[in-house]
Amino acid sequence: MRTKINIDGYNLALDEGTGVATYARNLSFRLGAMGAEVGVLYGTHASASRNPLLREVSFFDPRLGRSPAWQRYLRGFRRSIMAPAGELAVHIPSTGKVVTDAFAARLPHFDTLWNVQDLFSFAPNAFKLFKRRLQVKMPDRPQVMHWTYPLPLAVRGAKNIYTMHDMVPLRLPYTTLDQKSHYLRLTQMLVRRADHIVTVSEASRRDIINLLGADPDKVTNTYQSVEIPRKLAEKPEAEARSEVMGSFGLEWKGYFMFFGAIEPKKNVGRMIEAYLSSGSDLPLVIVGKQAWKSEEELKLLFDDHIKYIVQQGDRLVTRRKIILLDYAPFRLLISLIRGAKAVLFPSLYEGFGLPALEAMSLGTPVLTSNTASLPEIVGDAAVKVNPYDVRAMTEGIKALDHDEQLRGHLSWAGRRQAALFSAAAYERRLAALYSRLGVTLQPTTPDLPVQDEATS
Known about the structure:
This protein is α/β, with parallel strands linked by helices. It contains 17 helices and 19 strands.
């Protein structure tokens, strides 16, 4: 019998990728590779139809059977009263009758799918009422329920562990919209009640212990893995060059790049200021969804001085020094990262810093911050600056722009550093974590030690 481990689909259901979604997806594939039977628990709007085919259909189109507003309100009131009794998960068939190719990039690895209608919106309300985790009853109970986010939920009869990626709402409260008192109550409750807490860097582990009073023996850092499909990472350069030029009109190694959510924590405003101060002739490409306070981060984009005139054939063309893209398909995003002269990622605070590591794994030089987890993640393989110091950031950009030898060294060193966070290394850390819970998983490459695989 294989070990049953479930994860949640809290972030996996989002239409666009996030760092936590990448974490959950990679976790599911590593667990599957190590022989676990993986279940994924979602909380979509899909109703619990008795018809198996309708359950499968409605999972991919939750508008099916959507109740009127008054019925949803009444159901929510009734669920609130019955919340202490728990919620029953419903099995979602996966028969192949529904064509799911369009969702392939977002789906995790799974052996079984489960759903509790509106689970992730209902659970926080139940927590406010009862100050405890909402219990979920699984017909096929797992040995471990690995929640990939601090959620007020628990699976009955299983060991419940929770990944806390960072303590940004408490460390940089002005950069998030979380209700801070609710977040503090929730995370303090979880460190008391959880069977274990997982995090993704030593910096985050220290924060969880110091801010929440967690027992150090109860908090494990597994880091994350950086996993980019080989067919994209090793695509012939000529093909990638053609994609970058054809899709975006950009020269190979002829631009700087930032990718990630545009929000205060990412420090995009200071990055733009530093880039403009550097006097670089190359454009800056920003790929990211505009989130909270993005207009403040991007206000320099609307000044006329960031436009310039170039000769194109027999005519003059006005171009912008900064190119803003809300979204790029993953396959094109990888080519864009590969084609950048350098990636700029001067975040104020990160629990892990996956974008920096992804760029390094592709051989693209990186400028990043010397704060929080980023120094332990990038080691000596990136230019590190104080993210609050625009002058230091400007000098870092100038160095990357003009020093070919520096870029060559960082390209080589970045790949070596990123290899420390490979899928195989991640499996070994996960196996060590689950062994503390009495669960044995077999890494696909078990011969190397877990310790000292990442620099600190």
